Amino acid sequence: MRREPLSFEGFLLVKLIYMKQIIVWLVIVTILLGIIFWSRSINISTQSATNIWSGISSDNLSDLVVKNSLYDFGSIKMSDGDVDHTFTIVNPTDHDIKVDWLYTSCMCTNAFLESSSGEKGPFGMEGMGYVPPVNEIIKPGGSVDVRVVYDPNAHGPAGVGTIDRFVMLTDDQGRQLQLEIRAIVTP
Ligand SMILES: [Cu+2]
User: Fold this and answer.
1) Are 94 and 14 in the same domain?
2) Structure pTM?
3) What's the CA-to-centroid distance between 113 and ligand 1, angstroms?
4) Residue 144: its pLDDT value, please?
5) What is the pLDDT of residue 155?
6) 80 plus 161 within the same structural domain
7) How remote is the CA of residue 168 from the centroid of ligand 1, in Å?
8) CATH value at residue 89
9) Are residues 92 and 181 in the same domain?
């Protein structure tokens, strides 16, 4: 059986139908990927406190010191927005120590490094986008401030309850200092 050759208009129509189908599929795939990534980020945030941030082994502690490594905001309201706390990090040794990295345990938390030369940051969660190196030298007896900003709205309505977040500082010897913030989040 011989098929009629397709006219130019017919050809355009077939092409248009194909393109529509492709666009519909692209939209479906994009929505599915969005749902997968969204649920993954929620998973990461609830597991972070137990898995990634289970503490540092005692032989890997930085020589840098902080007076209080834990700060508790107490009860905070989502409607009041971001809260922040500044930790002062001191170099008690007789040699320079360079801060190489600052990472937070969750995307709702950012850290900024403040020194006499200005502010660096934000430094966020490892693996969630690019986090640049800090490259800040602390002189013997000197100090820098690490300002930790927590966004109680970052997780949406699911973010209500007790939260526990960490900031990990890594020095140029690969040794670490951990900071911790806590809060009870209410709507
Ligand atoms: Cu979070």
Assistant:
1) no
2) 0.71
3) 20
4) 98
5) 94
6) yes
7) 15
8) 2.60.40.10
9) yes
